[in-house]
Design brief:
alpha+beta, 11 strands, two-stranded antiparallel ribbon, L-fuculose-1-phosphate Aldolase, 25% strand, nine-stranded mixed beta sheet, single chain
């Protein structure tokens, strides 16, 4: 059962003004492209899927698309928020902006903390690619649900035990269709994902 788009964490949401549009130009361009490719969107049952984030310069803070935005064709500055603090054990985070953070934010946080060079993360859904990549690239345990403290811990495990930081892509076995790509820039993460997608389409 798909339940993307509904927050599972305890969120300390500090409502603040939106970030300047210029700050969001690159992330919004990629989000629009991924939506057009069907990698971010909404299922017929109304549940949205997929999200995207960028690290703020020299910080563990990151900007992420807001919860329940998957159905929107394009986003604007009202649809992004900044995660400033988090605690995996307590399944808790603090974000500030005009909207609450995506339910995948703890997973994004784990990846950013694993390597300071990672600057962009993309979470998408694609059934065919998910099936093809499963166990061929770093893959999480099938018993671990997305958006949970367990998933954050699993990401750290994969970074330490698997070739995740080199592969820059992972499959969430317990989250049907769920794939995460990341890179030293959002462009790097997006290009990697699209190259994988092209191979599947061909």
């Amino acid at each position: 059962m798909f339940d993307e788009g509904y927050t599972k964490y305890h969120c300390n949401w500090i409502q603040e003004n939106a970030l300047p549009p210029v700050t969001l130009k690159n992330i919004n361009q990629w989000r629009t492209k991924l939506f057009q490719l069907g990698l971010i969107g909404q299922y017929e049952n109304g549940i949205g899927f997929g999200n995207i984030s960028i690290r703020k310069r020299n910080s563990l803070e990151f900007i992420v698309s807001g919860t329940q935005t998957g159905h929107l064709t394009t986003l604007n500055e009202q649809h992004y928020t900044t995660v400033s603090d988090y605690d995996w054990e307590k399944n808790y985070l603090t974000c500030f902006g005009p909207i609450q953070a995506s339910s995948e934010s703890l997973t994004h946080a784990a990846i950013y903390e694993a390597n300071s060079e990672i600057k962009g993360i993309i979470h998408v859904h694609h059934l065919k690619l998910w099936r093809q990549l499963m166990d061929q690239v770093p893959t999480t345990s099938g018993e671990i649900a997305y958006g949970t403290p367990e998933m954050a811990k699993e990401i750290i495990r994969l970074c330490q035990e698997a070739n995740l930081l080199k592969a820059q892509i992972l499959v969430m076995k317990g989250h049907e269709e769920g794939i995460i790509a990341f890179g030293k820039s959002l462009d790097e993460a997006g290009d990697l994902l699209i190259n994988y997608l092209k191979a599947v389409v061909i």
